[in-house]
Amino acid sequence: MIEPRLKPVLFVVEDDPDMAELLAELAKTTGFDTKIFLTTEQAKQAIHLNPPAIVLTDLRLPDGDGLSVLHCVKRSSLDTYTVLITGYATLDDAIQGFKMGLYDLITKPFDIAQMTALLQRLMEQVQHRKSMLKLKTRLAQLDDPQLQPICQSPKIKQVYQLVQQVCQMDVPVLIEGETGVGKGVLAKYIHQHSPRAQGAYFEINCAAVPANLIESELFGH
Prior knowledge:
alpha/beta; two-stranded antiparallel sheet; elongated
């Protein structure tokens, strides 16, 4: 039996029921599993118990403000993206929000197409982060002592002789070859026999990363 794919969870914190339903419906259309909270207290309790992937929160709420929700997210989860939606934001509010890791700020009244595009970007970010987490987990689980390649081919032995020389050089190394020839094995061997062997080693499959995210994944954003 195939396990059903779980949708990422998105919280809507909005005291206007009609606005909350609209945001929740847009999020559902994008592929999120949504939950609505009409007060900051309800939202913060839920965030503390089980942080969602995304939080969309209004700034002005009956029992507090959206900044307190952002603060709760910052304390509870480093992996939750937050968006502040308001018609009353000041520059100070925006600065405080971004200091707490705010992903974006949307002013009311907002354009439906604008909000849909934002939700789609957030979905891409969540899926990308999930893929990278799986990759890092797999790497951490590998029982990978010092690789000791076994080879009989004279040409492959020549390759490893060349690799032994490269290992001690502080230069970038480009390994070319068709899929399945062992480029990854060579890369690990070079790392493990280099002066940087005690440092971190990561493999990134660029073909599996969306084109619009590869730059931020490699160099930050």
